[in-house]
What we know:
Layout: E1 11-12, E2 19-20, H1 31-43, E3 44-46, E4 60-62
Antiparallel strand pairs: 1-2, 3-4
Amino acid sequence: GKSFNEEFLNVHGGKFQDASVFYNSVSEINEENLKRTLKKSETIQWDYKNIVKRKGELILIQK
């Protein structure tokens, strides 16, 4: 999402650390961007599981 710092992820959500990109055709997909972003998704994660216990505080988990 937002914390990946990727320009092509230009549709940001409101409350959460999400970001999106929309395609109209398969040919628009940049394979290198996709691979890089999927790699980041394995290492940069947010702890939504314990957000209630932490009273709304969202903590970044880096693996």
